[in-house]
Amino acid sequence: MKLPSRLYAIVDPSAGHDPVELAQVFLQAGIRILQLRLKDTSSRDFLSAASRIAHLCHERGTIFVVNDRADIALLAAADGVHLGQRDLPLEAGRRVMGPNKIIGISTASVETARAAEAGGADYIGFGPMYQGGLKNIKVAQGLEKLRAVRAAVKIPIVAIGGITEASMPEVLSAGADAAAIISDVIKAPDIAAKVRALLAIT
Predict the structure, then answer these.
(1) 3-state class (DSSP) for residue 99
(2) Domain-embedded: residue 1
């Protein structure tokens, strides 16, 4: 697949925003690919939010991906699912989602990136890129490892972890097709303005 944007938006409620309202802000600001990430939410509430956001995304032609939960992605009619290394294996995720849905896989090494590509992933997430960020990352992958992964795989790479507006250009220059940015977006005083600024980075 070809990612439709250099910014991979993630709806995350950790700064106190309602997920559906945050998705609306993202979409109105021009987001073309969006992931819903609800770590501490009941399955019922996760499905409700995912279904509403899927409808909003489909109205605008924006790709909608659900984090972790292939079952919710399928029930909400999402375009795909993003799976971490402790979620469903890629092969099982593909059986659940079917051949035409998008599956992204989180990776943290050349080996896991190659395995994801060989297994049929549509794109990979790679990181964490920098220290800090939403998860208060202590050990980061850095740009050299990103360059090594870029040299190892042909599928799109979404870099993630501690990326900000200031560091996004170097991440893209090092080989990422897009950057997933959470904290720098959801903690911005004007989220829509921050999103538009990030979308302008090439």
Answers:
(1) coil
(2) no
